[in-house]
Amino acid sequence: MEYQKTALITGATNGIGYELAKLFAADKYDLIIVARTQAELDNKAQEFKLNYGVNIQTIAKDLSKMEEVKSLCEEITTPIDVLVNDAGQGVYGLFTENELERELGIVHLNICATVILTKHFLKEMVSRGDGKILNLGSVAGKLPGPWQAVYHATKAFVLSFTTAVREEVKDSGVTLTALMPGVTDTDFFNKAGMNDSKVVQDKSAMADPADVAKEGYEALMAGKDRVIAGWKNSVEVHAANLLPDSAVAHQLYEQQKPTEK
Fold it and tell me: pTM for the full model?
């Protein structure tokens, strides 16, 4: 009997995570999908089963709460072949004005949950000598981001962390890949309270999450270290590398500030 591979995907009910889940299901991976809302999970599980005929397990967790992340690790007994750390959030506004607890929740979700899940499942993968991990970074991780100072900083962590751990396990048969999208047409900006920002006014300039997911999926399967989704984003990142961080921060301040200011 052929071995059935399983992918664990957080943030799997919308945006890039949802599009990634479809790609894994189309390739006949069984899925364990994680999000905050059980109703959304049930809805997507039904869709995936109907369209792809794979087994779906749903687990509702708030991954900004560390005890729920740890309990997720304990609940999963199936060997995980691919871990996708997609769940993430941002908050828009000046650092001095944003609510501290909201920003700490973003640090817990974007950084701490990624560390906990990666450590737990990477150990199992290394012991088997096989596995893949896709961490959702962002071009934000290469660009200091006024109006989203904490979010950009969390994505800088994800990129550095993924690159370093990848090097540590390079001879183990396990690969880690960072997917770095730019502005993508998802619910992220709405949840972050960013709808007044200049950067989200032009919907036509936003990437399609399905296209971003496809680039990430192909990079993951090829064992690449990272992929910047979209050539425009790649140009922006490479151009930013030529400028002092202070100049990049000023550019981002102007790009991301509210339209009325």
Answer: 0.89
